Amino acid sequence: MVFTFQADSEVDSYMIVRPNAAHPTSSPDFFAAICAEVDNLSADLGTISLEIHDNPELQYKEFHAHKVVTEYLARQPGWTVTPSAYGIATAFVAVFDSTREGAVVSFNAEYDALAGIGHACGHNLIAVMSVAGALATAKVMKDEGIAGKVMLFGTPAEEGGGGGKIKLLKAGAYNNVDISLIAHPGISPDAALVRTAAYFAFKVEYFRKEAHAAARPWEGINALDALITAYNAISVLRQQTEPGDIIQGMITNGGLRPNIIHAYSAGRFVVRSSSRARVEVLRKRVFACFEAGATATGAELKLTPGGSYADHVPNHALGRSYQKYFNRLGAGIVEGDLDILRSSTSASTDQGDISYAIPSIQPSCWIRSEDHTGKQLGGPHTPDFEKAVRTEEAHGLAMRVAKALAATAVDVLTRPELLAEVRREFDEMKVVDELAGGAEY
Question: Which stretches are transmembrane (predicted)?
Fold first, then answer.
């Protein structure tokens, strides 16, 4: 499989480095070297992107993607690659160490797909954005004698609540890491300060007593009635929830036959909100609805926690660095609060949990998902987007993001005052979270 670019393609317009643009720091400008290295890597990474895209794999079964990426990284000079890291078959850790003490910057690569619609999530692009960013950072470190370390984590199972990053985090993979960088494609405008929602998933089960629904219904205790009572209570609760609070659910077992008082019912539910502290408040209110169903009918209730992700809290200091470099490539990310206001999303990611452990950004990367007339087609998690993330233009846009991610990493490695600002903001965020009652699920 060969991935090529045409010299006169539209993509090239996204690769322009503006040498006369104001540089965001007074430190040496490594941006031209970063851009040159990403351009040098682009064709190889385009092939890898298509290889991942055309062989979609679900959570913790990303064996082909894991093999393709780790084998490529193992061929890069100065990199040490650990496949199947921390006991997770499809996770990996790749490290470039200058052997001189300095900051530790990291990138997260995702490569899992969605059931039925493949890489409609665009994780093939996420993988190569992070690989390109990490390799370009290391190349500049080596050429310029910059101290520190670059770490690239292969993080499986972001979709479906698999939480690969959370497993790596709990295993200690991110110990002593100073910052975490990743980006995500979509159809929203490019943004540096993307904030995602927190969510908590759980399974609901009711148990009680069967009886003949026509002959002797009074002898039964109806587990389905308990679930329907709770479902209706949740519908009423929605009127009293705050903006950003979302409750989603489905009935997975509604009984055996219509003429039976049902001894068992079950469902799966998700609550989302703007922060993990808000999700905890909402979760308690939703659980009360299920307890009401049990009280009203006499059924026994069992609640089983499922996956949960914290909201992603972007670090503004990192975001400012990314925004300035990204805009040097011809983009137009707005500054400050307007950026974070328009880039908030109710989607969730396990990068959110990383953002509570170490300073993080997850910029959004606009990808064209339009028909030939310019009509807007579907975004992430739609068949339209699965096609959009395979185009040559999408790859070019991903490489543009990789340049800004790498430049942000080099900024942190070469500017101690920036890292101090990043850490100060992160510490302040943690205090606010603790006061709000935020806690790990």
Answer: none
> What residues in the chain have per-residue pLDDT under 70?
1-27, 438-441
User: Is 186 found in the same domain as 52?
Assistant: yes
Looking at the domain assignment, is residue 1 inside a domain?
no
Q: How far is CA 14 from CA 65, 98, 129, 397, in A?
A: 27, 31, 15, 7
The answer to whether 167 touches 190, Cβ cutoff 8 Å, is no
Shared domain check, 89 and 17: yes
Residue-range definition of the domain harbouring residue 388:
10-196+312-436
Q: How far apart are CA 269 and CA 204, in angstroms?
A: 8
Where in 69-120 does DSSP place strands (E)? 79-83, 92-97, 104-109
CA distances from 192 to 24, 348, 371, 416 (A): 15, 17, 27, 21
β-strand pairing of 211-212 with 260-261: antiparallel
Q: How far apart are CA 406 and CA 88, in angstroms?
A: 27
Q: CA dihedral in degrees (80, 84, 88, 94; nearest 10)?
A: 20
Q: Are residues 62 and 165 in the same domain?
A: yes
Instruction: Render pLDDT for 173-193 as a digit per residue (tens, 0 to 9).
Output: 999 999 999 999 999 999 999
Among residues 167, 172, 177, 60, the alpha carbon closest in space to that of 412 is found at: 177
pLDDT at position 13 is 35
SS3 191: strand
pLDDT at 27: 55
Whether residue 133 contacts residue 181, with contact meaning beta carbons closer than 8 Å, is answered with yes
- Distance between CA 234 and CA 248 in Å, rounded? 10
d(CA 181, CA 362): 6
Contact criterion met (CB below 8 Å) for 303 and 290: yes
Model confidence pLDDT, tens digit, residues 185-240: 999 999 999 999 999 999 999 999 999 999 999 999 999 999 999 999 999 999 99
**Contact between 386 and 307 (Cβ < 8 Å):** no
| Pick from 80, 54, 84: nearest CA to 66 | 84
Please check whether residues 233 and 111 belong to one and the same domain. no
180 with 207, same domain: the answer is no
Distance CA 68, CA 51 (A): 8
- The helix/strand/coil state of 295 is helix
Q: Do residue 19 and residue 57 come from a single domain?
A: yes
Residue 208 falls within a domain, yes or no? yes
